[in-house]
Specification:
This protein is of the alpha+beta class. The protein has two domains: 228 residues, 3-Layer(aba) Sandwich (D-Maltodextrin-Binding Protein, domain 2), CATH 3.40.190; 218 residues, Dipeptide-binding Protein, domain 3 (Roll). It has 14 helices and 24 strands. The termini are far apart.
């Protein structure tokens, strides 16, 4: 049996722990940190949402058995140890003692059981559990997962915070999807109030039990403390308002600063500018259950028409890189497989394919929103490029939560959904390509049945014993997705966060981590 006590590095065994030092202590306590968030939330039910806007807030309230460190390696969070059987078919988790929920109830294995039960029914990425046979709780501090077959990537999948299996009280086991309106977790902050379209306020959870296996915060785990009394996530969709709020101090932090504002902000001694390279991959997801995007030749015509430089320039104010596929070039899993489909900008080919597809000028609905200007601007340019080759492209502009609800729950009334994949590519190819299989395949396969070739590649990504074979499966899956135009990646861009100079401990990350952050007097 292999036992992991502190950290686990995927594929390489135990990580060495740092020399013991005193755990983090808040340099100052108190205050309300007002954070300018660019988009409204569609839900705080973290199990059922893959959106950044939900994750930004909810992951400061929830925790999981495992998460990732600063380098995206799997680490234990609510588990004290994990033991893997020699045949890789059993994982035994010993839970940390003294952990309480926000309602004061002690966390036990019964709550972990209930959380896995709920996720298996309504979890947005419940395919994580496809190879799991069962789970049980032999005692109050032990949770065991039994596999149908050995899956070398299971810990990688389980530790992902894309749509994590957060641990909730057992009494919430049967709450329907997106109906968990009063989030109760074990994290350092607990919900105070949520006003849709306006703000979400959280406060310090005084009963929080930090993970003493660490001395510092790392990734979304480690040793966490709530130094702030409260955090107010204010919805500020207008970029200029976020800039103004940061400059005046009305906002102590913001998640997105427009490129054109950066030269001036960098001169402001009261502001710290924090760039995050490779923030997300901007893309459009087709609806293959609705005409005319159910026609492969039509989708290929759209693919042929697009000028990715023009789209990304509009989306990012010029702060972008062209990027083939679904990983960033600096990642070891990056592949340019399928590159022949990318950035073709070939109007003649597009028109030829439209004729072969039998396209007769039917409306093509581009579903987008103005909460995220990069999504709106990329849709606007794509509309113009499609109209130039004879496609009757029409914009459908709603707010971000409505856009997500339409995409998730309907296959009518839209043909392309505009979004960005950021956290998932950073977590690795497995987290990203999970978007393209059921239960929530982004391309809306007819009758909910995955493309068998894509599904076979996905299964190989998960189950092939050798790393090289899993990487080959990823390259194959990416090529299939691009060849069949199941996703249209435009490119990647840098996002810039910002905080006031009196904010301590805030480090740029894919999720704004409010633990170990404090305010000083200036």
């Amino acid at each position: 049996m292999r036992k992991i006590v502190f950290t686990l590095l995927a594929g390489v065994g135990l990580a060495t722990t740092a020399a013991h030092a005193a755990p983090f202590v808040c340099p100052a306590k108190g205050g309300d940190f007002v954070f300018g968030q660019e988009a409204n939330i569609n839900t705080l039910d973290q199990m059922t949402s893959s959106t950044i806007s939900t994750r930004n807030i909810a992951m400061n309230m929830y925790e999981s058995l495992m998460t990732r460190d600063d380098n995206n390696n799997p680490i234990l969070e609510l588990a004290e140890s994990m033991t893997e059987s020699p045949d890789h078919l059993t994982f035994v988790f010993k839970l940390r003692s003294g952990v309480h929920f926000h309602n004061g109830k002690p966390m036990t294995s019964a709550d972990v059981m209930a959380s896995f039960d709920r996720y298996s029914k309504v979890g947005n990425q419940r395919s994580t559990l496809d190879n799991v046979k069962s789970w049980d709780a032999p005692d109050a501090s032990t949770f065991t997962i039994h596999m149908k077959v050995a899956q070398p990537t299971f810990i990688e999948a389980l530790s992902s915070f894309s749509v994590p299996i957060v641990i909730i009280p057992a009494e919430n086991r049967d709450v329907p999807a997106q109906q968990l309106t009063n989030p109760i977790g074990t994290g350092p902050f607990q919900l105070v109030e949520s006003v849709p379209g306006s703000f979400v306020k959280v406060k310090r959870f005084d009963g929080y039990s930090p993970n003493t296996a660490f001395e510092q915060r790392t990734g979304f785990g480690g040793y966490k403390q709530a130094c702030l009394n409260t955090v107010t996530f204010r919805i500020v969709t207008e970029p200029g308002a976020r800039v103004a709020g940061l400059k005046t101090g009305e906002l102590q932090g913001v998640e997105d600063l427009p490129t054109k504002s950066l030269p001036d902000l960098k001169k402001d001694a009261n502001v710290s500018v924090l760039p995050l390279n490779n923030w997300w991959i901007q893309l459009a997801s087709p609806n293959t259950s609705a005409a005319p995007t159910d026609n492969l030749l039509f989708r290929k015509a759209v693919q042929a028409a697009l000028d990715m430089d023009e789209i990304m320039d509009a989306a990012s104010d010029g702060n972008y890189k062209l990027n083939v596929g679904f990983q960033y070039p600096n990642q070891p899993t990056y592949t340019d497989s399928g590159k022949e489909t990318y950035n073709r900008h070939n109007a003649d080919l597009a028109k030829k394919l439209l004729t072969e597809a039998g396209y007769k000028g039917e409306p093509v609905i581009l579903l987008t929103n103005k909460d995220y200007p990069p999504m709106y601007n990329s849709a606007l340019v794509m509309q113009q490029q499609l109209q130039a080759v004879g496609v009757n492209a029409q914009m459908k502009v709603v707010d971000w939560p409505t856009s997500v609800q339409l995409w998730q729950n309907t296959a009518e009334g839209w043909n392309f959904f505009f979004t960005g994949w950021g956290t998932q590519p950073a977590l690795g190819s497995l987290a990203t390509m999970q978007f393209l299989v059921q239960p929530n395949a982004t391309y809306k396969p007819k009758a909910g049945i995955d493309d068998p070739e894509v599904l076979a590649a996905w299964q190989d990504m998960n189950n092939q014993p050798a790393v090289a074979d899993r990487q080959a499966a990823f390259a194959r899956m990416q090529a299939l997705v691009l060849e069949k135009a199941y996703a249209l990646p435009f490119g990647s861009f840098t996002k810039v966060q910002g905080v006031r100079a009196n904010v301590g401990g805030f480090a740029p990350f894919r999720i704004p981590r409010m633990a170990n952050v404090w305010l000083t007097a200036r």
